[in-house]
Every structure is written in structure tokens, then in C-alpha cells.
Amino acid sequence: MEPTQTTIAAVREVGADTVAVDLETPDGFDAQPGQFLKLSTTIDGEHVSRFYTLSSPEVGETIEITIGIDPEGELGPWIESAEGESVTVEGPYGSAYYENEDDSLILAGGPGVGPAVGIGERALADGNEVTIVYCDDEPVHEDRLSALKDEGATVIVTDELADHVASYYEGQQVFVYGFQEFVTEALDALEETRGDPDDAKVENFG
Ligand SMILES: Cc1cc2nc3c(=O)[nH]c(=O)nc-3n(C[C@H](O)[C@H](O)[C@H](O)COP(=O)(O)OP(=O)(O)OC[C@H]3O[C@@H](n4cnc5c(N)ncnc54)[C@H](O)[C@@H]3O)c2cc1C
């Protein structure tokens, strides 16, 4: 989709320094959970663009992204109070997204929990199996993680990523979402366990 103006319909706190942002879905927009958008706006006269991954299970009247707020950042602190504002979106982009896999293992660090819950909800709705291993000092989206657990997903919140990667890999499509440090840790753990993480779907937040 070409750059398109849309409205920030809602901004909700979903845990420490993290918000879920609902954007009105532009006409004709479609995407799969795990794909990402480019979001642009003007802050103090300066054009700012950042990428954010979908955290909603499907495209409805709104689409959701989940943003970890760095208080020193440019776009994050702005978006916290941007309900009702206009932004430009482009996309979707990326190849690390859910494609109706029947058994998924999602490794999520920090705001990587956004695509984890989006894919998890969609996978369960499709009758598929899903395991989420989520690492964060202060876990967010706890309501949605707990609902996923109640509905049959395996949800592990841990700081021992490697132990859980070792236990869950065979026959599963692996997804990895998070910032560089987490992605490196996850790929190292996968390599140790299975020797070859090349078939994992990986999105590095930078
Ligand atoms: C494919 C992709 C998907 C992504 N998906 C998500 C997602 O779903 N959720 C999410 O939260 N993030 C995601 N990100 C990261 C996101 O795009 C932003 O990088 C992040 O939100 C920080 O943006 P910001 O404008 O708030 O901070 P920035 O302004 O980019 O700052 C980040 C840090 O850099 C420091 N910094 C900035 N400018 C300077 C400077 N001039 N000198 C020194 N230090 C500086 C700041 O102090 C701050 O600590 C994704 C990134 C990519 C590439």
C-alpha cells in the first residue's frame, strides 16, 4: 500500500512502558500477523518514521501495533498521547509472518510479544497449535497471554530462553521477534539445539 493517512483510534497501556495502538484500517489494506508497517509523522517540525509489527490477529476496522516506549526515543513518547492524531502508514512489509502453520514456536523478547500474541490468537482461531516463549523484565500483554493459555496455547514467560528452546522445536515452525540482542540469543540457542536455524522466521527490531 502506498503511504496513506489514517487516524490513531486508541492508545492503551498494556504493561510497563508499553502501549497497544489501534490504527483505523485504511481502505484496501490487508496483512498477516507478524508483518510490519512503516509509520510516519511530524514531531516538532521534523519528519519521523519507524517500523512496527502487527499485534492484532486479523485486519478488522482497526489494526493494532504494540510499542515499547523508550523515554529517550523520538516516536515512542509522542505516540503515548497521540490518540486522535493522524499518521501515515505504509506496508505491510516483511516475510516473517504467520502462514497458517499447524504448529508454531514463537520466541519473543520485549515488544516482540506483540506479534507473539497476534499470531497466537490467529493460530488458535485456525485450530492450530502454538507455543510462546517470552522474555522480558516486566512482562506485558498479560491478559492476552493468560487468555491464550486458557484456550490451549503453551505460554512460557522466562529469562531462561535456551532451556525452553531446547525442549520445543521438533516439527514446529519457529518465529523470532525482538531487538538485536534477543534475536542473537535466540538464534544461538536454536543453533545449539538443532544446528541450523535457517528455516526460522526472524524479524529483528534493530
Ligand atoms: C522490522 C522492524 C519491526 C519493528 N517492530 C517493532 C514493534 O512491533 N514494537 C516496537 O516497540 N518496536 C519495533 N521496532 C523498533 C521501532 O521501529 C523503533 O526503533 C523503536 O520504537 C524506537 O523508536 P523511537 O523513535 O521511540 O526511539 P529512537 O528515537 O529511535 O531512539 C532509540 C534509542 O536511541 C537513542 N538515540 C536516539 N537518537 C540518538 C542520538 N542522536 N544519539 C544518541 N542516542 C540516540 C535514544 O536515546 C533511545 O534510547 C521495529 C523495528 C523494525 C526494524
From TrEMBL:
Concerning Pfam families, the annotation shows: FAD_binding_6 (PF00970)
List, alphabetically, the InterPro entries matched.
Cbr1-like_FAD-bd_dom, FAD-bd_FR_type, FNR_nucleotide-bd, MRET, Riboflavin_synthase-like_b-brl
User: Domain of life here?
Assistant: Archaea
Q: Which GO terms describe its molecular function?
A: oxidoreductase activity
Residue span(s) of domain FAD-binding FR-type? 1-99
Q: What is this protein called?
A: Dihydroorotate dehydrogenase B (NAD(+)), electron transfer subunit
The organism encoding this protein is Halalkalicoccus paucihalophilus
The lineage is: Archaea, Methanobacteriati, Methanobacteriota, Stenosarchaea group, Halobacteria
